[in-house]
Amino acid sequence: MTAAFQGLIKRLLGAAFAFFLGVLFLITPIQGSVGASEPLMSGDYINDTVSVAQSLQEIIAIPNDSEGKAQAESDSVQLITSYISRYRNRSQVNQSLSYTTMQTALNAMAGHYKTFSNRPLPDQLKDRLNTQLAKAQELAKNES
After folding, report:
1. Where are the alpha helices (DSSP H) in 63-122?
2. Which of 87, 115, 118, 140 could form a disulfide linkage to 98, CB 3.0–4.6 angstroms apart?
3. Which residues make Cβ contacts (< 8 Å) with residue 40, sequence separation at least 6?
4. Is 135 exposed, middle or buried (0-12, 13-18, 19+ CB in 10 A)?
5. Which domains does the chain have, with CATH numbers?
6. Torsion, CA 126, CA 129, CA 130, CA 132, rounded to 10
7. Chain-centre distance of CA 65, in angstroms?
8. Residues 96, 82 contacting (CB under 8 angstroms)
9. By percentage, how much of the chain surpasses pLDDT 70?
10. Which residues contact 112 (CB under 8 A, 6 or more apart)?
């Protein structure tokens, strides 16, 4: 008899907890930290490509011992994510040479920052990124 009573109590407590969570999710406002107030991309592929490339080249040029370096790296990953998200599924640009060049550079940079967040970019990678970003800018301008 007591085992049945204990089982009933457990089920009632489980149901009450599930009900409480459901009500909590309904009445709690859902807020994201996405920062959707201002879009990072304008929608103009050429201008976005040039501005993203220039911004990333500026971030690469920041000295490793600079105060804002960590925040700049975090901002660059957000910028890269916005750019790739905006243009990845657009067939009119994602097959262009400028986009594939840009995507190669962005993947390398974001991959380094996400995998080795406590290490600075190696000089060889900096050189490669600067070359690819400059090439992507030039190709995008020529594709217009």
Report:
1. 69-87, 91-94, 97-115
2. 140
3. 78, 79, 82, 83
4. middle
5. 69-143 (1.20.58.810)
6. 160
7. 24
8. no
9. 88
10. 119, 121, 125
